[in-house]
Write a structure and sequence with these properties.
five-stranded mixed β-sheet, four-stranded antiparallel β-sheet, alpha+beta
Length: 399
Amino acid sequence: MLTVDIYSKNTWWKIAFLFVCVIIGAFSLYFTDRIVSKLEEREKDQIQLYAESFKFMMTNDLDKDVNFFFEKIKKSNENITIPVILKDGSGYLTASESIQIPTGLNSKEQQAFLRDKLNEIMRDDNPPIELDMDFHKEYVYYGNSHLLNMLRFYPVFQLIVVLIFGLAAYLFFDASRRSEQNRVWVGLAKETAHQLGTPLSSLTAWVEFFKSDPAFDPEIVKELEKDVQRLDVITTRFSNIGSIPVLKEENVAETVEVFLSYLKRRISSKVSLTIENHLTHPTVKINKYLFEWVIENICKNAVDAMTGVGALKVTMENGKHNQIIIDISDTGKGISKQNLSKVFNAGFSTKKRGWGLGLTLAKRIVENYHNGKLFVKYSEVGKGTTFRIIIAGMTDEVV
C-alpha cells in the first residue's frame, strides 16, 4: 500500500527549531548547575571557617581584636543567610545563626523549634562539621542559603521559559502555514469557480439547443442536463468554500437522497447502494451545496476503497438533543490503525493518484462551517469502514 503525505515533508525545520531550544535549555541548566556547585563549595568553606572560629573562641583566651574578627565572620554569614545550628555531644542545641526564633518561647519551646529547623536543614544533605572541643564535641549543621536555593531552581525556570518560547514560536509558524494554505485554497477555489463559469454558460446553451432539436434522444439530453447542473453545483461549491457560507433550513434527507440517486447511475453496477432514512425531524440549517460535497467525498472514497465491488449503505437517524446522525458504511479494504489518525490530514492518501484533500475538506465543512462532527466510527482492515456525521438539528419552537 502506497502512503503519500505531501505536507509533512517540510516539517523538519520545526523539529530542528525545537531541538535547538532544548539544547539551549540544557546548556543553561548545565552552566547554572556549575555556578550552584561552586557557590555551594564557597558556602561550605565559609561555614568551616565559622566553625573553626567558634572553636577557637571557645577554647582560647581571646582579646578584643580577635572577638571583633569573629563578629565579622558572623556578620558575613548573616549577609548571605546560611542557616546554622550548633549541637553538642549530648544532643542539646546550643546556638543558631540566621534563624529567626519567635519571641516569648521558653527554653524547652526554643529547643523544639530549633529541632524542627534542624530537620529542615538536614534535608539539604550537607554533612555536619564536627568540632573537637578538648573535653567534648560540637556539631555544626548548616543548610543552603536563600541565594543558593534560588540558583538551584533558576535553570528549571529558565528551561521552562525556553520551552514556552519554543512552543509559542512553533504555534505561530504553524498558524502562519495554515493561514497561508487557507489563502491558497481560497484563491484556488475562487479562480476555479471563475474559470468554470464561461464554459458552463456555453454548455447550458447547447443543452437548450439539443432539447429543442427532435433529432436528439430526449433521455440523453436529460442526462446531459443533469451533468451540466452538476457542474453548476460544483461551481457554486468553489464559490462558497472561499467565504463564510450561508446556512439555510434544508431537508437533509432529501439533499442526501438526491445526490445518492445521481451517484448511483455513475458508479459500478456491482456496488449496491442502500439508504435507510429513520429521521423524524430532517430539517436542519446547512449549506446545501457544501454539505452535499461532504457526502460526495465520503461516498466516492468508499467506492474507491471497494474497487468497484461491494456494498455502500447510508443510514440517517435522530440522535440525542435533536441531533442528526448520518452513517456512511462500505465493505472496502478498511483503514489500518496507523493510518486511522491521518485520514483527515491534508495531503494524506493511500491511492497512487490523489491529492488527499477530499476528507480534509469534508471535515472542515462539517466542523468549521456547520459546527458538527465528522469521524471514523468503525474500521477494520479487510471488512470496511463507517464514517459518522453529527450535526445539530432544528429545535421545535413552542407557540
